[in-house]
Amino acid sequence: MDEEQVVKFVETYLKKKGFKQAELAFHDEVQHNSNANSVDIHSDPDLSLLLLSLSQSEDTPARYHEEYRKLRSWTHSSLDLYKPELLRVLYPVFVHCYMDLVAKGHIQEARTFFNSFREDHETVHSRDLQKLEGVLSPSHLEEMEFAHTLRQSKVNLKICQYSNELMMQYLRNTKSTMMLGIVNEHINFQVSPGQPSSISDDAEVVTLIGNSQDAANQINKKEIHWGLLEDSLEERLEKAGGLLSDSEKTEGDAKEGDLDETKVNILKRSVEGGKQGASVKKLKKDKAASATAKVVRPETNTSSIAPRVKSELPLPVIPTEVEQSILEDLRNRVQLSSAALPSVSFYTFINTHNGLNCSSISQDGSLVAGGFSDSSLKVWDMAKLGQQSGNSVLQGENDTAPSEHVLGPNGVKRSYTLFQGHLGPVYSATFSPLGDFILSSSADTTIRLWSTKLNANIVCYKGHNYPVWDVQFSPLGHYFASASHDRTARIWSMDRIHPLRIMAGHLSDVDCVQWHANCNYIATGSSDKTVRLWDVQSGECVRIFIGHRSMILSLAMSPDGRYMASADEDGTIMMWDLSSGRCVSPLMGHNSCVWTLAFSCEGSLLASGSADCTVKIWDVTTSTKVTRTEEIKTGSANRLRSLKTLPTKSTPVYSLRFSRRNLLFAAGVLSKCK
Amino acid sequence: MSIVPKETIEVIAQSIGINNLSEDAALSLAPDVEYRMREVMQEAIKCMRHSKRTILTSDDVDAALNLRNVEPIYGFASGGPLQFKRAIGHRDLFYIDDKDVDFKDVIEAPLPKAPLDTSVVCHWLAIEGVQPAIPENAPLEVIAPPSDGKNSEQKDKLPVDIKLPVKHVLSRELQLYFDKITELTLRRSDSALFKEALVSLATDSGLHPLVPYFTCFIADEVACGLNDYKLLFALMRVVWSLLQNPHIHIEPYLHQLMPSVVTCLVAKRLGNRFADNHWELRDFTASLVASICKRFGHIYGSLQTRLTKTLLNALLDPKRSLTQHYGAIQGLAALGPNVVRLLVLPNLEPYLRVLEPEILEKQRNEMKRYEAWRVYGALLRAAGQCIYDRLKIFPPLPSPPAHAVWRDNRKIVTCSILCEI
User: Fold this and answer.
1) Which residue, of A26, A573, B210, B339, has the fewest CB within 10 Å?
2) Which of B118, B169, B208 should one mutate to test binding to chain A, selecting the residue with the greatest count of A CBs within 10 A?
3) For A646, which of B2, B119, B125 is closest by C-beta distance?
4) What is the pLDDT of residue A333?
């Protein structure tokens, strides 16, 4: 190819793209020192071909279709060893092809392109595809968060060296410039030498997250102190062997930034192999220790292993008599394990006329609250609900909240206390740890605090701009966290009407929120399919957990503070290691939305309640232990052991709660049609 | 290009008073309408999830519109879960059945009852991991074989405690219940308490775990208690009650039950030959057999054929005793007139030849003669029923003294058949 030709190509290209200035500058450049800069163009045939194609291409939509089709068939006929890796490239290319077509205004062609290839990705990405299908004009691309972030960011793909070479060679040889362009523009290959990685390790590949994986990795390197609070009641129980120490200790220690090194176990995750190996080994040792400790004296394993941290928040004081009753409960706790399953007491709501949105059970199971779509909040005192149920169930745990039966408007005795005040459906309710307060959140954007002693509304917290989906009291009371449609989570204290912290960062609704056992962190689950962990004191995001394939519906924190469970719309439950930010094991079993999760008090069991009318009990100890050893060897995904499935009689399970004595309470609505 | 056709846009435009919407405008509006629709649905699904439902209602759509500051659509309240019907001829097109309601009917109808107030009831879903069999819990499934647990664990090489093979654990209450029922059946089957027990067997929902034990018990007792008429009758009543219970899946145990039941129908001797009214037991068992066939015949195609084969063999074997013949005839008759027509009527002639000497005065043995007459009576009844059934097909003839004539007819018909033979 001689130089004049090149010049001509460049000119036509610039003209076509409308770069007038550049064209003029190019002209000058060519005329002045044409001999100097032409060397490398000659030497690189690829580049000249690229230029050639750019100047030629007119019929773009058809080329997208054609080139993608070719790439697809090439990938499917590639070597078996490298096929999984190459197949992974197809999805981002597909999505970007579609969006490019839309952006260029070829709506009709975009549709046909989308429909002809969507089946390939339907199994894994059906939800994303549904979203994208609606994008039909360039303005939609801008408007829709998901599409917008996809266009802005690059996808990270792990690929082995050889696959990468194969792919590039193919793209060059077939002059698939469109595909090459997309691959260069939107995919960031992380080329690794050696063998291609296995398919199972695909959590990151599955979700195309708006913010790039890099950012998530960066965030996940931050330190977190997942240990339990110093001087918690459990610890005191062990130390004193049941004797009470003064309750003053709980107070104070506020805002002390630095931490006691001997007590704190800081685990950093690092991408580099050596470091990671070391930390994993450390973990393994830890776990082994815990396993042996468990054999010897199972009742102390959590507290003796879990490191202690100081609270970063000033915490409320627990009254002595309450503390005593809690200690009493702890002494009488039933030890649960895979061999000793819990007893489950089920509260069934009847005659709700499809109006119950949420339910909540107090710590001791004596109070049950239901939030309704008619804006009301109703609280049942199970201790007074007829002798047939109350007495047998409560086992003397109900020493709080002596609320009275209330007479209805026409003098008919109602079995519940009616709280009215919200102006929209009540989406969530939560009891304070002592059962004397209830918080409810509603579509009217407010959160209300109710007293179960006075049976009245005390405070109305305004701050969110959109419906508040979830509200949760902190494990020690006083503070609470809320999650809203306005994409923020907020931290409040009972005595302030304005939020103390606003956690912003999720790309879609924040659907659920949960406190860490040591009150220093909250976790939020969102419709953007991620779970984030936030530092309450600083308001920073300290972890992003990526791996779910649909909206997150519920979260639970293990009592030892090390693990978190999250459940989504599809019925998948994932167990995360907070320190590494990695998924320990996905739990498959439910086939519908999992509304609620709960860890047993010593953390050995996880209970999940689902819309498929079952309560499932999972073994936490074995599964986490297994993964530790196996992670190093194979890295294959593990599943927790499902210990037991308890079917209900056509009653979806809305909430679960382990009492301090490890009795499991569950609540749900009897639905008539199956 | 959009799933909303431009014609729809034009229709909507006309409905709000824009008559001259240009085609271009409609074409460019269509994709946007589709996008907005999807957006609203996305929000509606969120609202549905937060109401902890899996069925989208019009309330959710209203809430979604509300989120977008759009006026909700009025007039589409949904009280209960909607019943979608599939449109005929379409695989994935559904509609809500909306019936026309006459105003007059609505006004004249009595006021509906006030809806019941919401309440909470409490029960044990599980006690130490075991679900008690109470009506509030879902009926227990048939016990799964203890297979998978061990294998999968060994495969995974998990360092965990290996589960023991699943034992069928009966709660203490169920054990007591079983003991009580068996005791009543064995010893006090004529007491009022036994009747209560039968009612309980026919209605209680938590009995499923006991079914294998009951089938076993019945099979054992029938096998060794053929001389005890009272016991046999009590056992058959128990079977009858179990069959009545709607909460029990008895199908898997049917193959164990059937032999005992058939025994009680066609056994040579049931109880004392002279003192006990074994005819009654056979009649009862015949109806039991018929009800089993009726209920499970369509699930087990071979059930009825096998049964009729057994019965027919018993009937046509001249060496069998007359009591056996009687049971067989009753059993076949209970299965319906068609069975009689197809199986009994063609065999009448040879059979009557066998029966004839027994029935006439020649037979010295009084007992035998009595038995023969019983068999004859059963035959008459079966054949009569069959013919009567056939006659019913035709329109009734206008004959004034209907009752008497019918009687006569029946006799005549049966006689004529006999004559033909």
Assistant:
1) A26
2) B118
3) B125
4) 84
Q: Which long-range contacts (CB under 8 A, 24 or more apart) does A404-407 make?
A: A404/A455, A405/A381, A406/A455
User: Edge to edge, what strands does the sheet with A426-431 contain?
Assistant: A426-431, A437-442, A446-451, A456-462
User: Which of A107, A467, A622 is nearest residue B1 as measured by Cβ atoms?
Assistant: A107
CA A441 to chain centre: 21
Domain limits, CATH 1.25.40.770, in chain B? 176-391
Coil vs helix vs strand at A371: strand
Contact B136 A346 (CB under 8 A): yes
Q: Does A336 touch chain B (CB under 8 A)?
A: no
Which CATH superfamily, name and number, covers B176-391?
A: TAF6, C-terminal HEAT repeat domain (1.25.40.770)
pLDDT by residue (tens digit) across A397-436? 333 333 344 444 444 567 889 999 999 999 999 999 988 9
From the list A140, A351, A511, the residue facing B117 with the nearest CB is A351
Tell me where in chain B the CATH 1.10.20.10 domain(s) lie. 6-73
Q: Which of residues 44-103 of B touch A (CB under 8 A)?
A: 46, 49-54, 57, 59, 63, 66-67, 79-81
Query: Would you state the pLDDT for residue B306?
Result: 84
In whole angstroms, what is the distance from residue A611 CA to residue B218 CA?
Answer: 41
Which residues of chain B lie closer than 8 angstroms to A626, CB-CB? 156, 158-160
Q: What is the pLDDT of residues B355-378, one digit of tens each?
A: 777 777 666 777 778 888 888 888
Asked whether residue A16 carries a pLDDT value surpassing 90, the answer given is: no
Question: Nearest CB to A646: which of B126, B136, B158?
Answer: B126
Mark which residues 252-291 of A lie under 8 Å from B by CB. none
Residues 97-116 (B) with a CB less than 8 A from some CB of A:
115-116
Decide if pLDDT at A639 tops 60. no
- Taking the CA atoms of residue B360, residue B363, residue B368 and residue B373 in that order, the dihedral angle to the nearest 10 degrees is 0
Q: For residue A78, what are the CA distances in angstroms to A121, A165, A166, A167?
A: 18, 13, 9, 10
> Which tops the pLDDT comparison, A449 or B303?
A449
Closest listed residue to residue B416, CA positions, set B394, B387, B389, B392: B387
pLDDT of residue A309 exceeding 90, the answer is: no
Query: Mean pLDDT across the stretch B327-338?
Result: 84
What pairing do the DSSP bridges indicate for beta strands A641-647 and A510-515?
unpaired
- Looking at the predicted structure, is the pLDDT value of residue B298 above 80? no
Q: What is the pLDDT of residues A263-291, one digit of tens each?
A: 333 333 333 333 444 443 444 444 433 43
B207 to chain A, closest Cα gap in Å: 16
In this prediction, residues B14-23 reach a mean pLDDT of 87
Q: Say if residue A118's pLDDT is above 60.
A: yes
If pLDDT is split at 50, 70 and 90, which confidence band does A370 have? very high
Specify the pLDDT at position A53.
Answer: 59
Task: Using alpha carbons, select from A604, A567, A561, A563 the residue that is nearest to residue A588.
Answer: A567
Torsion angle in degrees (nearest 10) through CA of A110, A115, A117, A123:
130
Contact status of B247 with chain A (Cβ, < 8 Å): no
Rounded CA gap, A654 and A297, in Å? 35
* Distance of residue A314 Cα from the nearest chain B Cα, in angstroms: 32
Whole-structure pTM value: 0.61
Q: How far is CA A20 from CA A7, A51, A134, in A?
A: 15, 18, 36
Helix (H) or strand (E) holding B234: helix B229-244
Chain A partners of B115 at a C-beta cutoff of 8 Å?
351, 353
Find the residue in B nearest to A630 (Cα): B158
Could A425 and B115 be called an inter-chain contact, meaning their C-beta atoms sit closer than 8 Å? no
What pLDDT, on a 0 to 100 scale, did the predictor assign at position A31? 65
Going by CATH, does the domain composed of B6-73 fall within 3.40.50.300? no
